[in-house]
Amino acid sequence: MDHVLQTHLPVAPWREPAMARLPGVQPLDMADWLQVDEAFAGQMALRDALLAERREAVHAMTPGAEAAAAALLALVLEHLGPGYRREGGVVQRPDGVRVVLDAEPPLVTAARLVQEDLCLMQPGPGGEHVLTAAVLCFPASWTLAEKIGRPLTGIHGPVDVYDAGMAARVQRLFDAIREGRPLWRQNALVYVDPALHQPRPEAAPRRDAPGAGRYLRSEKQCLLRLPSSDAVAFTIHTYVVPLDALPEAWRADLTDEEPVT
Length: 261
Fold this sequence. Notes:
- The chain has 261 residues and is an alpha+beta fold.
- The protein has one domain (13-253).
- It is 26% helix and 22% strand.
- It has helices spanning 17-20, 40-53, 55-58, 66-78, 106-111, 144-147, 152-155, 164-176, 248-253, and strands at residues 26-27, 59-61, 85-87, 90-92, 98-100, 117-123, 129-135, 183-186, 189-191, 215-225, 232-242.
- The strands form 2 sheets. Strands 1, 2, 6, 7, 8, 9, 10 and 11 form an 8-stranded antiparallel beta sheet that branches. Strands 3-4-5 form a 3-stranded antiparallel beta sheet, with no helix packed on it.
- The chain is globular and about 50 Å long.
- The two termini are 24 Å apart.
């Protein structure tokens, strides 16, 4: 069972003017990057199970991404917050699970420490950023196997609003990210199914009937330039909250229209 729910949503992006215009990015305080919320234990148990039982579906890496993966693990270790305890080569998570730091590839180790899904984007031969590695346990209706190795335009091909103008804006955004000046955005997706692990191929897009959704799925997406690297880390913290748990005013402003994810 991968129905792991939060009890509330920290921010309603559809009610924030700064987030209303895509891509809606804001400066990120690094203290707010990695979050531990009330769903931590449940999400991490599901992540551990997926990595153990379905590794090929949730982890992928292209040649040349190894150094960026190691750099991301180092950054994660640097920013682990209260509730973690490190003893030599072992980190104990807030849920009590102990993670040995050199037992798995760096990106898998990093993913077993935090709630966030972790993606690495690096400039390709044409200059456009390419998805070179990821641990994606909680996809919102996309499939890692279809996206790995693709540039930004290929990744967002099925998204109607991701036209040439949007593609150019997003690429400029990736080019402009500087070390120590991360960015974040958040989306809001109305879903019928609350499952966290929802891979879906491009040929079979999700078709929930308007008004049928009972859950709000929201992703806090962060973009960070890795230290001394041309790689950008794209991290995703997923919230799934019953619609009836949201304040009435929030529900009144929410529609089934879905932004770029």
